[in-house]
Amino acid sequence: EVQLVESGGGLVQPGGSLTLFCAASGFPFSRYVMFWVRQAPGMGLEWVSIISPDGTPQYRDSVKGRFTSSRDNAKNTLHLQLNSLKTEDTAIYYCAQDAQGTVRGQGTQVTVSS
Fold first, then answer.
1. 30 Cβ contact list (under 8 Å, min separation 6)
2. How many Cβ atoms from other residues are within 10 Å of residue 23's Cβ?
3. Strands 10-12 and 108-112, bridge-based pairing
4. What pairs with residue 110 in β-bridges?
5. 50: part of which helix (H) or strand (E)?
6. Which of 80, 87, 105, 91 is nearest to 26 (CA)?
7. N- or C-end of the chain: fewer Cβ atoms within 10 A?
């Protein structure tokens, strides 16, 4: 059974930072392209970052230069470092096996507010 468990979210002021984590199990993680996706209040899911099996990341334009994703294939974990957070980054963040979030975890809430 595929399991994806996110953690690390919270409330942070604009300009602040957070680190999100995802623990994966039940599938050959090291062979999968993995995704971070998010869902803002009242909006649909949007992809945030793609990370290839070798750790090469890609980012949507709105987070480039502020977010950094990485993975540890030995530990089956993903990480997403969120810096210079903006109010528009407020969302539930999920790790997922695809960009549409069809297979994703329960999510972790990130709230950016003063």
1. 53, 73, 76
2. 16
3. parallel
4. 10, 91
5. strand 45-51
6. 105
7. N
- How many residues make up the chain in this entry? 114
Q: What is the rounded CA–CA span in Å between residue 73 and residue 88?
A: 31
Could you count the other beta carbons within 10 Å of the beta carbon of residue 49?
A: 23
Q: Whole-angstrom Cα distance, residue 12 to residue 90?
A: 10
Q: What is the pLDDT along the chain (114 residues), one digit of tens a residue?
A: 999 999 999 999 999 999 999 999 999 999 999 999 999 999 999 999 999 999 999 999 999 999 999 999 999 999 999 999 999 999 999 999 998 989 999 999 999 999
Asked if 12 and 90 count as a contact pair (C-beta separation under 8 A), the reply is no
The answer for residues whose C-beta is within 8 angstroms of residue 42's C-beta and 6 or more apart is none
Q: Which secondary structure element, helix H or strand E, spans residue 6, and what is its range? A: strand 3-7
Q: Which residues contact 57 (CB under 8 A, 6 or more apart)?
A: 49, 50, 51, 68, 69, 70
